[in-house]
Amino acid sequence: MKKDRKNIILQSLASMLEERNLSKITTASLAEKSKITEAALYRHFPSKRSIYAELFSFCDDSIFSKCNEIKKSKLSSKEKVKNAFMFFMFFIEKNKGFARLLSREALSSDEQNVSDSVNQFYERFELVLRQILKEDDSNLRTQPGISAQLIITSLEGNIGRYIRSKFKDAPSNYIENVWDLLSISVFKN
């Protein structure tokens, strides 16, 4: 039962992050959305910061477990990077609340530790891409680090674009074209 309530709280937070007019999420509003008391919310999480941290942890685990799977596959370096890029964008499209977490838009100064985790997330994701790109660096137009940086910058920009459209302009509508342009910029063939 305790695990179920925790998941309900996390799902409620993710749902609240998806709302068009994102207002300050309070523990009272989160408890109301979760259909529990604020005291019950604190029995599951010691602070609002810990709720955000656990939600971010789920996002982080989901993306990196898929990245590790892609990294170990027998695909070419180019296909691995494409799959990681596409997975990331489709994951964000399906989990709009995570877009607000990964853009840091939903975080206040009280959640600085989560903001720091988001920064580390992008650094780790860039490192994974750089490692994959090094597998076939003779096919790159520039250094693996610069190529990985370009891809991460594109990901962050597309998350921002998705949020600005109020989640109406889904990445699946244009992301193949974005990948084609990135691919031309990163790979020789």
UniProtKB/TrEMBL annotation:
It comes from the Bacteria. Residues 26-45 bind DNA. InterPro entries: Homeodomain-like_sf (IPR009057), HTH-type_Tx_Regulator (IPR050624), HTH_TetR (IPR001647), SlmA-like_C (IPR054580). SUPFAM superfamilies: Homeodomain-like. GO terms for molecular function: DNA binding. The keyword Nucleus does not apply. Transmembrane segments: none annotated. Keywords: DNA-binding. NCBIfam families: PRK09480.1. This is Nucleoid occlusion factor SlmA. It comes from SAR86 cluster bacterium.
